[in-house]
Amino acid sequence: MAGFIAVDAADADRAAYAGEISALRALAVESLHTASTDIMFVHLQQAVLGFDGDEVWAKQLDRINDGEVDVQCPDCEEELVVDLTSGDSLIKPGLSSALAVHLHAAAVHATRGTVATMLQRLFGQLACPSCGTLFAVADHVAGVSYE
């Protein structure tokens, strides 16, 4: 919860509570290795992102816990529900950003193979089944506009 609060804090508040935010971030990072479940691991990663000020992924990373994401094809505008858990997914796995590489490495290091695999799908590319357009899943989850 503290990560959600920190990410939405005004700059002045983040500066005033920098010590507390830093201490809570360190505690969240330390707890990654002892998270009791994959769900808790993802929530801890979200908290770290919130403490770091990542306004998108501090709020969206838990889509992994849902096992699916809703996206819209940028070309034909078809609404798609993408399964992050299935090996038969239409997603070409990848790690499309430095953040994706970092999150994946943390999951691998903490022996969270399922989370690591779903991160590769979340940050991979999808070929629209209707028109064949290839696009980055994470961009659409993050609200990146191609217009």
First-last Cα distance: 34 Å
User: What can be said about the biggest beta sheet?
Assistant: 3 strands, antiparallel
Q: How many separate domains?
A: 2
Average of the residue pLDDT scores: 90
Tally of extended strands? 5
| Annotation field: number of helices | 9
Strand order, largest beta sheet? 3-4-5
Order of helices and strands: HHHHHHEEEHHEEH
Helix content: 40-55%
- What is the alpha-carbon Rg in Å? 16 Å
Which runs of at least 5 residues are low in confidence (pLDDT < 50)? none
Helix/strand/pairing category: alpha+beta
User: Could you tell me the strand content as a percent range?
Assistant: 5-15%
Shape: globular
What does this 3D model show about the protein?
- With 147 residues, the chain is α+β, with helices and mostly antiparallel strands.
- The protein has two domains: 1-61; 66-147, no CATH class.
- It is 52% helix and 12% strand.
- It is built from nine helices and five strands; from the N terminus they run H-H-H-H-H-H-E-E-E-H-H-E-E-H.
- It has a three-stranded antiparallel β-sheet.
